[in-house]
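Reply to dn_fold:

You asked what the input looked like. This is it:
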Amino acid sequence: MFLQRQVVWRITNRSTTTTLSCRYLSAGASETTTSTAVKASHPPPKKKKQRLVVAVGGNALQRRGDRLTIENMMKAAAQMAPTLAELAKENELVLTHGNGPQVGELALERAAATFDVLGAESMGQIGYVLAQAMQSVGTTAVPILTQVVVDQFSDAFKDPTKFVGPIYGSVEAQALQQSLGWTIKPDGEYYRRVVPSPPPQEILQIEAIRTLLEHAPGVLPIACGGGGVPVCRVPANPQTLQGVEAVIDKDACGSKLAIELEADGFIILTDGGGIWENFGKPEAREMEAATPEYLKGTKAGQRYPGSMGPKVTALIDFVEKSKKKGVWAAVGDLKDAAKIVAGEEGTFIREDVPEGVKWRAGKTGPPRRESKEPPPF
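and this is what came back:
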């Protein structure tokens, strides 16, 4: 009498489940039947995270009309934190920020301090505010005090362009210029102090930022705040650094940072939106996407050298100078950050836009108020 038995082996690994079934006769069987059933279960491949450098303007932490207080800054940071945390979950993120209002306010409080020291102070102040807000939504952020080398003989020192500090009416601005020797320029319908803004040449803490990205996933680096602390190398001894009286443009430094980190994308978040043609006019229309060639050919943003102009230049620089293929840049409103990455809001800059530009349908531009009187000085 033969007894038939069945033995089942189940082998499981992370991606495959295999069942082997063998029937055999227990005594002197002349026939053995073996059957194999294989069931493979492959989970869908994980979407590769993009490496993004995101630049948030100093004005996003200091809305026009609000007093520049720590309380107001923390309130603004708390409002933007959930949006940034969502981006950080889906992407490999590095955050940078402006400091125009904050560094200008510090300069009013401490007239004897140089702008490199004030820049470092503002970087610590804003970095703390942002890190606290991010921690409150479950994201650990690490502010890095970043020094950035500039050319102390740059033409930027001959024609200051970087707006810092609060806004003034024309009479008050003229009085400040005469009494303190400031350079004052129009900013919309108001006036503000301007200081030199040389282009960034070298980010000294770049390896520290890269190490955090590669070895501490889930940690959000905050770097090059306010464009970084401006320093230069002493000509007689290049290893020696000294501070420079300037404020580096955060968008230019953010572009440099994105290039150095081989980022996939560089995003500038504003309190306005994307790039517009005929901004502030009834026929205004927003660009959905554009090539660097189109933006340069139409001189997009150049009418506004204190606001959109540097942003467009920084976006173009990233796309053109990055060694990585297929990179993109974008600009849009802070509240639309997730939609910008999805291509639903803001303006994208990349090399492969048919006909050079694509317009976003169904949007009209907000009104823009310019100064109604020429500068009084």
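Residues 241 and 273 are 38 Å apart (CA to CA).
Hope that clears it up.
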